[in-house]
Amino acid sequence: MIEALWGWPPPVFDPAGPYASSVTTLAWVLLAMGLAVTAIVVAALWIALRGPASLKRKLGGEKTVWIGGVAFPAVVLTALLIWGLTLTAALTEDITGDEMRVRVTGEMWWFRVEYLDREGNVVVADANELHLPVGKPVVIELQSADVIHSFWVPHLSGKKDMIPGRTTLLRVQADRAGRFGGVCAEYCGGPHALMGFVAIAHEEGEYRTWLAGRARRQAAPALPGASAGRRLFMDSGCAACHRVAGTEATGLAGPDLTHVGSRETLGAGILPNNRGTMIGWIGDSQSIKPGNRMPSYDMLSADELEAIAIWLEQQK
User: Fold this and answer.
1) Is the pLDDT of residue 77 over 50?
2) Following DSSP, what letter does each residue of 206-274 receive, concatenated?
3) Chain centroid, CA 314 distance in Å
4) Alpha-carbon gap, residue 209 to 73, rounded angstroms
5) What was the pLDDT predicted at 2?
6) How far is C-alpha 232 from the geometric centre of its chain's CA atoms?
7) What pLDDT is recorded for position 162?
8) How far apart are CA 289 and CA 119, in angstroms?
9) What is the pLDDT of residue 221?
10) Residue 194 gets which letter from DSSP?
């Protein structure tokens, strides 16, 4: 389990890119301002209750009310608003069209990920993982297939809602290679708290190699038991909900499993991806993530579950 929790829950004060840095700076300043205001209110309350009579008279005077209750907050909040809008202006700059684009669609309760070319065509389909090059801004097209979700990788940018019927844009950028945890930040029902995400930043050359490998998928050497697993996958109804490129599995209701063998997590970021967790997920997904839309295949024997897991393991 620990392997799956890289950065999850993600720390919100550890930015790894320019868009997250401005949000983090603003958050720290707002926190400091909140603490300062709280301290002033507590001090005023102490004076009102226990302070000397002279201070009580000054605290209740008309001049204090105008300065402390009207002028001070008006000036401070106006200055804070202008500074905050200036600091975060890059988050709302116009899209130039030259940025790399990825479409991420929120589903109950996982993320569909599609890498797009310049014409907006899907080049690679994936789920629950976002791969991006270091040092390059990436525009995320956010959509929702059902209810309102929210996409948030705190290391890389602020959060933005995923709204049914609308497409919203969010810039992300990583200034260093690594793995960064993400979450759905809007309660969307059921196992919302188990709707995780992993963003993986590669050096640019490594990223290009990764993307080219995904686009030109090679048939993996067959593992012992894989052919039986493929037959069970098709016969048990898995293919009705899941797509595996190059096979008769064309379902779109669930995550695309074309590259599931190379993913680092299962169940939308909640389990490390290995044969044992794959077997457990197929056989009893409802115990692991109660309420998710994949039924538990507890009618299959242990050998049958392992055979399916072996076949999925070689989908890379």
Assistant:
1) yes
2) HHHHHHHHHHTPPPPPPPTTHHHHHHHHHHTTGGGT-B-TTSS-B--SS---TTGGG-SEETTTTEE-S
3) 26
4) 54
5) 46
6) 32
7) 97
8) 37
9) 59
10) G
Helices (H), the chain: 18-50, 53-59, 62-64, 72-87, 204-215, 226-235, 275-288, 302-313
The rounded distance, in Å, linking the Cα atoms of 230 and 1 is 27
Sign, CA dihedral 93-96-102-105, equals: positive
> In the structure encoding, which two tokens stand for residue 254, read together?
């669930």
Residue 191 structure tokens:
């196992």
What is the amino acid identity at position 239? Answer: A
Q: Minimal CA–CA distance to 167: which of 91, 123, 254, 102?
A: 102
- State the pairing for strand pair 168-172/100-107: unpaired
Ramachandran angles phi, psi of 85, nearest 5°: -65, -40
- Name residues whose C-beta falls within 8 Å of residue 77's C-beta, 6 or more positions apart in sequence: none
pLDDT over 90 for what percent of the chain?
A: 74
Exposed, middle or buried: residue 198 (CB in 10 Å: 0-12, 13-18, 19+)? Answer: buried
The C-alpha atoms of residue 77 and residue 59 are separated, in whole angstroms, by 22
The answer, yes or no, to whether residue 278 has pLDDT greater than 80, is yes
Contact predicate 182/197, CB 8 Å: yes
Distance, in Å, from the CA atom of 7 to the CA atom of 168, rounded to the nearest integer, reads 25
User: What pLDDT digit, counting tens, does each position of 18-39 carry?
Assistant: 999 999 999 999 999 999 999 9
Phi-psi region of 9 (alpha: psi -120 to 50; beta: other; left: phi over 0): beta
39/297 Cα distance (integer angstroms): 57
Contacts of 70 (CB under 8 A, 6+ apart): none
Could you tell me which residue, 93 or 274, shows the higher pLDDT?
274
